[in-house]
Design a protein that fits this description.
- It is a single chain.
- By secondary structure, the protein is mainly α.
- It has two domains: 73 residues, no CATH class; 73 residues, no CATH class.
- Helices cover 59% and strands 0% of the residues.
- It contains nine helices and no strands.
- α5 packs antiparallel against α9.
- The longest helix is centred in the first third of the chain and has 18 residues.
- It is elongated and about 55 Å long.
- The protein starts with a helix and ends with a helix.
């Protein structure tokens, strides 16, 4: 990849290659990740450093991220959008599917000491699914709401 990044190619082409070859691998399975805010910031930083390397922009050049990223959203925003899309897919599946038991039903048993681990529903921000269910069932409205909530589009 270093030869491609060092080549005298247009920055837009390098961005498209970066999204196709690097971002797709980085985000594989990301819709099911439960990340903390610290982990999201760390991923955003890694993504920015990798993009700067792809575009041959040194941190010493004092070029802001907005100037070199070409309008690409943060990687954490893309992960958030994918999570919301997966939640919409899962809610539209038939009621007897296994995912309903795993995702939407409350946990059973006794709680452990300390803070409880983050669940997928907590991460997506859909802890109260009653009001969102009708929105999630309409694919077009849910897609628009997801894009506007996440800020990607």
């Amino acid at each position: 990849m270093r030869k491609v990044w060092k080549a005298q190619l247009n920055d837009d082409l390098k961005r498209r290659l970066f999204v196709a070859m690097v971002e797709s691998v980085l985000l594989y399975g990301a819709e099911s990740w439960t990340l903390t805010v610290k982990q999201e910031k760390s991923l955003d930083g890694v993504y920015t450093r990798m993009l700067r390397m792809a575009l041959n922009v040194s941190w010493k050049d004092h070029i802001s991220n907005i100037d070199h990223d070409g309008g690409l959203p943060h990687i954490s925003d893309k992960i958030r959008e994918r999570r919301m899309a997966l939640a919409g897919h899962c809610i539209r599946l038939p009621e007897l599917a296994v995912h309903n038991t795993i995702l939407w039903k409350p946990t059973h048993g006794t709680a452990r000491r300390g803070r409880r681990p983050a669940t997928y529903i907590d991460t997506v921000g859909l802890s109260d699914t009653g009001e969102l269910r009708s929105l999630m069932l309409d694919r077009d409205k849910w897609r628009a709401a997801t894009k506007s909530r996440v800020g990607v589009g």
